[in-house]
Amino acid sequence: MRVFRQIIGVGVGAAITFSNAAQSASAQSPAQSQDSLAPSNQLVELGPNIRSTSNTAAESASHAEQSIALNPPTGPEQASKPQQAAPASPSTLSQAGSTPLRGLEPTQTQQPSPNPPNNVPVPSSPVPILRGTPNESFPPLPPRGILDTKPPASLEPNPNPLLFPTNPEDVRIEQTEPITLQQAIDLARRNSQVLQIAGQEVEQSRSALREQQAALYPDLNFQMDASRSVTAGGELGVRAQQRFNNSRANGTGQPAEQARENLGSNSLNSTLQLNYDIDLFGRRRANIRAAEEQLRLRELDVERQAEELRFDTAEAYYTLQNADGQVAIRQASVRNAEQSLRDAEALERAGVGTRFAVLQAQANLANEQQQLSLARRDQRVAQRRLAEILNVSQSANLTAADPVEQAGSWRLSLEESIVQAFKNRPELEQQLVQRDISKQQRRSIQAGRLPQLSVGGSYNVLGQDPDDPNPFATRGWADGYSIRASLTWSIFDGGAANARVRQRDADIAIAESRFDQLRNQVRREVEQAYFGLESSFENIETSEAGVLQSREALRLARLRFQAGVGTQTDVIQAETDLTRAERNRLSAIVTYNLGLSSLQRAVSNLPTNNLSDAP
Fold it and tell me: pTM higher than 0.70 for the full model?
């Protein structure tokens, strides 16, 4: 009886396998391999947007199982590191049938050598390495000097910065545009409010410099006053004279003499004045130098903001790629769970399965569907985060058009990267500029305590036309001039100038201490990004082997379950392991790209960043 039940179980499993194989064969092209026809032997793919660094599609699952047992994957100590200095040979690039990364193809065309039947392909090193040359992972400089990747015109934001949507239709998503990383960086540089504010601050500092430079020239002022005056005092005098005349006339009995009329006066006064401060002790020059350094400080801040914006954009883009990959992985997990549920139900109908196995499969499917819902939530959040950074239209949504693959390699050693970061980071130069500003301000304060000499002159033209008909009254035109020299010396100010000098001395010491602090921070950032890049590259290799192992384990678990010699728990565990392996591979690739972007940010000012034309 036991033998009979085993024969029935094997027959039912074979029937399920051949039935599923027939359904798959009708939906797939004849060119696909035999192993991909059967769901029990199917290697779940995540879609065209997730690419492995090694060409593993040509290997069958059985060869993978044998090679995993015979040839374990290369350990971290044998993995190629980003700091390698020797260029990789064309044969290394073509090893295991792998395709070189974009921009890293060998100069001579080489035919890829076929994979040995017992050798698992692993990711090739993402280098040939040319020492002293940073990675070129950004588009070349176009003729007009800015990035021009031609992103979709529909993503352009409203030109009115004060736009305030008041209707739901104004913020409803109406279109979804796929963009590449380069287009995202281009859009960020065009639309970023941070760069726009930094650019306005540069113009503000440039105007402040021009204001200080104006002190090199004399001040020339012209003033003209035209007036007509009838004085109240004159009117009071006329009245007093009239009263006097009336009192004198009362004593004589004769009519009173009329007092003279209060007459007005017309005048026109024009003055041309010239003033100039003679810079005896360099106060004016110190103010100009301080304004020049302040302008340089703002320009460096634009450079820093552009680098930070490029990193933030790349980070948001890779986060979106990771979210897209997680959705694809969860969708594949749901398909695996559905397949396991179908197998469990088929065995139950055949009488060789249990209701418990069906319930396990249903619970596993529900869990995977919940995880898929969470992954889609994270995907939507990542899309809106990227749209926020790029400042695109309110009605547009973004998706990642680039495939998930290694973005490139780093061609400098650790020591070269650290030295290059010390030379390139604008934050370090900003502290030196801040120190120079404080020095010039201190010099200006010290010069202000010394004698200040100013000279000036004025030319005056005056015209008067009184109403008085007396020919001897003051009337007509005349001119005159004056020349002056003024010396001012602040002898005692209660110690205010000395206090301001000590403040600037403290600012100088603070800038030097911050430079020391930032130098150590820059080195730590470079080392942290560099070590992370090494670790991520090694993780890509190990995760590739883990995916192959998990796929083969799932295939065997399904075959055992369909044959009645395995359990549903084994299948669910294998599906979980495959999902974890796929997530580890995706995480390794995305983490590698983030590490490369972090290292580029830590070094900064690479030749292909095009910061010289930042808006």
Answer: no
